[in-house]
Specification:
There is one protein chain. This protein is of the alpha/beta class and about 500 residues long. It has helices at about 55-70, 85, 90-105, 110-125, 160-170, 175-190, 190-200, 215-225, 240-250, 255-260, 270-285, 295-305, 320-330, 335-350, 360-370, 380-395, 400-410, 425, 430-445, 470-475, and strands at about 5-10, 15-20, 30-35, 75-80, 105-110, 130-135, 140-150, 150-160, 205-210, 235-240, 290, 455-460, 460-465, 490-495. The chain contains 20 helices and 14 strands. It folds into 3 domains: about 5-110, ATPase, nucleotide binding domain (Nucleotidyltransferase, domain 5, 2-Layer Sandwich); about 115-300, Nucleotidyltransferase, domain 5, CATH 3.30.420; about 320-495, Orthogonal Bundle (Hypothetical protein af1432), CATH 1.10.3210.10. A 6-stranded mixed sheet has the order 8-7-6-9-11-10, sandwiched between helices. It has a 5-stranded mixed sheet with strand order 3-2-1-4-5, sandwiched between helices. Helix 1 (about 55-70) packs parallel to helix 3, helix 8 (about 215-225) crosses helix 11 and helix 16 (about 380-395) packs antiparallel against helix 17 (about 400-410).
Length: about 500
Amino acid sequence: MAKITTIIDIGSNSARMAIFQKTSRYGFHLIHELKSKVRISEGSYEHDSYLQPQAMARALNALKEFKKVSDSLKSRKLICVATSALRDAPNKAEFIARVKKECGIAIKVIDGTKEAYYGALACANLLHEKSGVTIDIGGGSTELACIENGVIQTMVSLNLGSIRLKELFFDHNNMQEAYKYVRKYVKEHIKDIKAFCASSSFMQNLNVFGIGGSIRAYAKYEMDLESYAFNFLHGYELCVENILEHLETIIHASNEWLLESGFEEGRIDSIRPGLLILQVILEELSAKKLIISGVGVREGAFLNDMLRYHHGKIPNNINPSVRSLQDIFLTSLDDSKTISKHTKTLFNLLKEPYDLEDSHLQALQVASKLYNIGANFNFYQAHKHSAYIALHSLHYGFGHKERYTIATLLESSHKKRPKIITQTLENLLPEHDALQILSFIFALSVALAKEKKIALEFRDYTLSISIHALPLQQALKEIVLPRLEEYPRLGFIVNEI
């Protein structure tokens, strides 16, 4: 596949472009993104799904701009997909021909099942949870897919979208009929999804992965309500039981209230019908958790191309964000491998006495791979640079708690105890004593980065380390011991072999 690839997604509401750069076989990152609210479906649902001239002109102008940006970034491949608005339009061939002639872009109209697959492919590979149901609410349709242990199962496409509902019901203030229509339609058309969930291992704690602009806009609203410390939508988690009342409020809210609550003006007329669809599906599935996905059809189309010889699956032991950061910032992985080895050894020694969790080891292992990425900026304060880069760049495959834990370990690798900035951030970290122990493990492992042969022993809450290198002995003695609140104090002895 091309090193730089452009993906364009023409939806009923917006046209979006994402440009990805590959750094290695599985390493990649987003280098540019553009959005244009073209509303290509505007007026079509009241005219037998025919695309209207004004809407086509808006879309055409947006695609011309997209192509200019793509060419300026030297993209070698461009994939353009169109969803509900075009596949339903009797005059789509006219629009596709104009785009090809005036923009040099070949549009591929995908069916509902393929759209559902792309969204599910993105979530299965790029979210931290690997089992659940995707819900992709667009302007003209809504797609659902079941994912179990990273494998895509049942898929369905519903002729139910925010713009479609807006034009059929909300523009006519017919809320009662909108509710009746959506509930009846959803109940009739997601039977296969419900049947699979009922037979799955994850039904009791069903995750729903929310895709699409309406869901992202709603997530921003919830973040503001709780003064959430992270400004990252991807991986943000919400308890369904706690948000159903909020959804109801927004669905019935006035435009003035929506604007005062922080919703963008361009989203006002579509947010209420979009969230009505979300509310009904969440209730119908008895979902427990809504996890916001910052990835969708564009990422799915990209992965479908990138992984066409790999069965649509990034290997379990590879994270594309970690791999990309390593490709960009590290010249050698020798120290990373040694640090990773030491963290695993120390973790296994201290796991039982200090009740550490297996997920903590994963955080240590990722931090080991990234411990020196900040040195490219400046040798001094490299640990702080590493922490910042990790926090803001570990976009794929990590929950918010994992991202912040990894960043905290990197920042405290310089022989320092971790600092908690706010109560909100504290909620995203392991318990106090666990974090202290993990930070100690990581700082010690970094100090031992050049030393491959060491002898470790843990007895009576005292860690003994025997080592040959004399300069290291002094450095190890300077490492700050954990300040524990509930567990016995950790002792630390350095011996010369």
